[in-house]
Specification:
Length: 215
């Protein structure tokens, strides 16, 4: 094979192949530059891609329990507290009813006392009005205590204990003073009602309920 005359000025330079092509040391033809992969193939040493939507990312923050901005579930009132609350409302209704009946009876007695114009009759009428006012005040107190059972604290519990204790003593006095008949029966019923309320308030469940954290 002949390489031509090295002294010929019209020939190709010595050490380089003739013809049109790529420079020495580089592959010929059209393609990707040397050291870079072609399109469609993953690059080595590049940054990792981000995970797709719907997949959990590592190192993320945990979600809020129940969703952000939602209030935690409120505890349910124990059964003893519900029973005492219902009994307070029942007692309040009975006290209002008895107070109204006493008020009507005292009004009629006042008309009779005005005709008699005696100090004793007027004194009895005044005492009757005090009794009616006391019954209505106790009824209002029982309603307020029952309503506050769901939101009140230890003060409501202590007030209910005092209220039930006083009414329990009154029921005992009526029971011993009555000589049979309706007074004795009413004393027994009242004794049972206020005894249940007092027992519910001194129970450990009442202490936990009225000392629970408020949200």
């Amino acid at each position: 094979m002949s390489f031509g005359d090295p002294n010929n000025p019209y020939g190709p330079p010595q050490g380089q192949p003739g013809g049109y092509g790529s420079p020495q040391g580089q592959p010929g033809g059209y393609g990707a530059p040397q050291g870079q992969p072609a399109y469609g193939y993953p690059q080595q040493g590049g940054q990792p891609g981000q995970p797709g939507y719907g997949y959990p990312q590592q190192g993320g923050q945990p979600g809020y329990p129940g969703g952000p901005g939602m209030n935690p579930m409120k505890p349910e009132m124990p059964g003893l507290m519900k029973t005492a609350r219902v009994l307070l409302f029942i007692v309040a209704g009975l006290q209002i009813l008895v107070g109204l009946l006493f008020g009507v009876a005292i009004g009629a007695a006042k008309d009779v006392a005005n005709g008699m114009d005696t100090d004793a009759a007027n004194g009895l009428v005044g005492l009757g009005y005090v009794l009616v006012f006391l019954l209505l005040a106790l009824a209002v107190l029982a309603i307020v205590l029952g309503v506050k059972f769901s939101t009140g604290g230890s003060g409501i519990r202590i007030t209910t204990i005092v209220y039930a204790s006083l009414m329990l003593l009154g029921s005992l006095s009526n029971l011993f003073a009555g000589e049979g008949g309706s007074a004795t029966f009413g004393g027994i019923v009242a004794l049972a009602i206020y005894g249940i309320i007092l027992a519910a308030m001194v129970n450990s469940q009442a202490s936990v309920w009225f000392n629970r954290p408020r949200y």
